[in-house]
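Researcher: We plan to redesign the surface later, but first we want a full-length starting point. Tokens attached.
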């Protein structure tokens, strides 16, 4: 009897859902964090927003059909158009609106690996999903290697690259005066994360990125995750501890010489499943990802 693997089934379901999704039913909601910073939610990655006298600065832009709705939500806050778009990484649920904003005159900024991946056809191995190269107007115009700072709206907006985390092009964005940090998909709040190994991601880089943010976050810092509700330092610490706990368990199984399927069968995430295992990435799939990562990168 012909069978379909769980990952292939998830990939098929995800691609069909994207093609069939009725974006007209998506509501873009803005949550005010400070006088100048907001978090916008809708469908796709959470959006960061800075507004003020100088410019409208956007972090990620979800899907192309949502651009008008995102702009309508921004228009309730400020009449100014979007001047800057900063992408936290290359995935389509964070960069889908790039072409619209690029054509409208916004300056798109990202780590250099984001432009490299968006410029060519990509294949997300764990989802068996092919992603075609983006059109020119969607590509970042300004790229950086380690970081870049924007001085806008009475704040310093510091973008910092973190290596081999969710992908190889992740950026953490720190609003210094506002005390807000946008982590992109390095942080999935309340759920196991998707780590895109085929795009250069890795579990150790995820933990290192969390440690970098924990070192600069205070008790009152507001943390915007790539997916999930707004968090604080304590929420990020709990997430980081979960990642480290799963890593430790899988490392022990790898040292015993276990194969991927044996590691998954050993349920190394069991202690954490009640809190973290109800999102898109289920426990076995997360264990499989971590095992595959460690076996390839011991």
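Model: Full-length starting sequence:
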């Amino acid at each position: 009897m012909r069978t379909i693997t769980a990952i292939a089934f998830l990939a098929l379901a995800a691609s069909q859902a994207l093609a069939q999704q009725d974006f007209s039913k998506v509501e873009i909601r803005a949550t005010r964090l400070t006088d100048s910073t907001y978090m916008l939610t809708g469908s796709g990655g959470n959006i960061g927003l800075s507004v003020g006298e100088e410019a409208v600065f956007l972090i990620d832009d979800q899907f192309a059909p949502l651009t008008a709705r995102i702009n309508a939500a921004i228009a309730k806050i400020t009449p100014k158009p979007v001047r800057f778009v900063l992408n936290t990484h290359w995935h389509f649920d964070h960069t889908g609106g790039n072409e619209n904003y690029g054509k409208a005159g916004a300056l798109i900024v990202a780590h250099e690996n984001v432009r490299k991946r968006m410029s060519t056809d990509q294949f997300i191995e764990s989802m068996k999903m092919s992603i075609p190269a983006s059109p020119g107007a969607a590509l970042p115009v300004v790229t950086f290697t380690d970081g870049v700072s924007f001085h806008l709206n009475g704040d310093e907006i510091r973008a910092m690259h973190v290596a081999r985390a969710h992908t190889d092009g992740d950026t953490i964005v720190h609003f210094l005066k506002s005390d807000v940090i946008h982590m992109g998909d390095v942080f999935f709040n309340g759920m196991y994360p998707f780590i895109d190994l085929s795009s250069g991601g890795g579990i150790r880089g995820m933990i290192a990125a969390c440690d970098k943010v924990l070192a600069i976050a205070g008790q009152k810092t507001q943390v915007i995750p790539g997916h999930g509700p707004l968090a604080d330092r304590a929420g990020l610490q709990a997430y980081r501890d979960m990642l480290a706990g799963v890593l430790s368990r899988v490392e022990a199984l790898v040292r015993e010489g276990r194969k991927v399927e044996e590691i998954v069968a050993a349920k190394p995430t069991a202690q954490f499943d009640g809190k973290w295992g109800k999102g898109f990435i289920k426990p076995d799939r997360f264990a499989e990802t971590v095992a595959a990562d460690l076996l390839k990168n011991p």
